[in-house]
Design goal:
Elements: H1 3-28, H2 58-62, H3 77-96, H4 102-122, H5 127-143, H6 148-173, H7 180-218, H8 230-255
Helix pairs in contact: 1-3, 1-4, 3-4, 4-5, 4-8, 5-6, 5-7, 6-7, 7-8
Bound molecules: zinc ion.
Amino acid sequence: MSPDTLALVGIAILGLAIGSFLNVCIHRLPRQASIVNPPSACPQCGYTLRWIDNIPLVSYALLGGRCRQCRAPISIRYPVVELLTMAVFLGHAIVFGWDVILVPRLVFASILIALFAIDLEHHLLPNVITLPGILVGLAFGVLLPPGIVDALVGTLLGGGVLWLIGEAYYRYSGQEGMGGGDVKMLAMIGAFLGWKLVILTLVLSSLLGSFVGLLVIALRKGGMKQALPYGTFLALAALTSSLVGTQIVDWYVSLYRQ
Ligand SMILES: [Zn+2]
C-alpha cells in the first residue's frame, strides 16, 4: 500500500474508534451520566461488555445486533454512528489533505455528529457539549484558521443572530420558537468556522429546514411541529460549510463580479 492509502486506512480506523466513543456520549450525556464510569453494560440484563463486544461494526455484526447474554436487540444507532463517523473522517481527509486544519475540523465534525444524534432522539442540545465546544473552537482559533478575531466575531454573530430571531419570534407569537441550545450551538459553530461560514451555515440550515418542512407538509405526515429539531439541520449545514463552505462563498461572490 502507498503511504497515502495507509494514512486513509488509519483515518478510517480512527473514525470507527471515535464513532464508538460518540455512541457512549450520545447514550449517556442526555441522561447526565458519566462517559467514563461505569463500563458499558446491556440495559436489559446488566451484562458488562468486554473488549470483544466493543469492536466497532465487527461486534455488532458477529452478535447479530443482539446482547451476548440475553439476546436483547442492540440499537442500530451503534453501527450507523460508527459508519457515519468513518465516512465523515474520510471525507475530511480527502477534502483537506494532510493539512493541520484537519485536526480542529475532525474535532468539530465529531461534536456535530454527537449533537445531531442527541437532538434527533431527545430534542436536546446539551450545554456540556456546546459550551466547552465554544472554548475549544476559540482555542484552536488562536493558532489556526479562521484566526482568533474571526472566531470571536463568529461566536458573537452566531449566538447573537439566533438569540435575536428567537426573541423576536417569542414577542410576536408568545411561543418559544428557538431553544437556548440552538443559540449556543450556532455560537460554537462560529467559534470553529468564523463569521463568514457561520452566516453560510445559517442560510443553508434555513433552506434545508424549509425544504424538509415543505416535504413533510406535502406528504401530509403531520404539521411543522413533527418536523425534525433545528439542531439536526444546523449540524448538517455546519458540516457542509466546514467541508466546502469556502468554495460556496467564493462561487456566490463570483456571481456578482461578472
Ligand atoms: Zn443483555
